[in-house]
Specification:
three-stranded antiparallel β-sheet; 32% helix; single chain; alpha/beta; 244 residues; binds 6-O-phosphono-beta-D-fructofuranose; 8 helices; Glucosamine6P_isomerase; 19% strand; seven-stranded parallel β-sheet
Length: 244
């Protein structure tokens, strides 16, 4: 069952998601948060920097990292997380996949061990225009563990806005698999803007299919989607969703 919370805009989305994350962080003495990069969570991280909730009992595990970018590269996801969050708040431990590991297969296995040792209480997710979650592109097996993956043209195009030119966007990444993501006790997916409308419609109303990775979430017991009006604009049930 996917619960939908409809909000007006990206600002309201960030506030609602922030409140959810804080409630999970306050619920226990030891908490693991699964974190995401990209444009979607920026408002949430800004609220965390501003309000400085207690985080020293919180371990974070990020979804993915580009292959070949040093942690100091300003487009690496390690850099993004340091810049947005980890340099501002004291976490217990922060994990991001190692995109420059000499042995990438071993790095994937090591990451799965980290997830197993720190079961994720709440996984924050964005969604790609093609329905990807983390860097799990259409066609990825729903059982997949952390793995090395190629990026589709759609994702490279979408992410090229952060790079000087499209050719600079890495073409592969290390990503938690759909199987790894589904182990989280609870999942919070956020989506804002018209560009996400088709993917949100598929995820909420489409058949469960590997052609749209986010549809795997229909099989998870505890998923909340916070989406704005534009992202929900193609959904049949949006009136119902807005009433939640
Ligand atoms: O939030 P954005 O920038 O639209 O990206 C959506 C998703 O795509 C990714 O950036 C990967 O392409 C994810 O990290 C993110 O959740």
């Amino acid at each position: 069952m996917i619960k939908v919370i409809a909000v007006k805009n990206a600002e309201e989305l960030a506030q609602k998601a922030y409140e959810k994350i804080v409630s999970v962080m306050e619920s226990k003495n030891e908490v693991t948060l699964g974190l995401a990069t990209g444009g979607s969570p920026l408002g949430i991280y800004a609220l965390m920097r501003e309000n400085k909730p207690a985080t020293s009992h919180v371990t974070t595990i990020n979804l993915d990292e580009y292959i070949g970018l040093e942690p100091t590269h300003d487009q690496s996801y390690r850099y993004f997380m340091n810049d947005q969050l980890f340099n501002h708040l004291p976490f217990k431990a922060t994990y991001v996949p190692d995109g420059i590991a000499a042995d990438l297969q071993k790095a994937c296995g090591d990451y799965e061990a980290i997830i197993a040792a720190n079961p994720v209480d709440l996984q924050l997710l964005g969604i790609g225009e093609n329905g990807h979650i983390a860097f799990n592109e259409p066609g990825t097996s729903f059982d997949s563990p952390t793995q090395v993956t190629g990026l589709t043209e759609s994702t490279i195009n979408a992410n090229s806005r952060y790079f000087e030119k499209k050719e600079d966007v890495p073409t592969s990444a290390i990503t938690m698999g759909i199987g790894s993501i589904m182990k989280a006790k609870e999942i919070l997916l956020i989506a804002s803007g018209e560009k996400k409308a088709e993917a949100i419609k598929q995820m909420l109303e489409g058949n469960v299919t590997e052609a749209c990775p986010a549809t795997a979430l229909q099989h998870h017991a505890n998923v909340t989607v916070i989406a704005d009006e534009a992202a929900l604009s193609l959904c049949q049930d949006k009136k119902e969703a807005q009433a939640v």
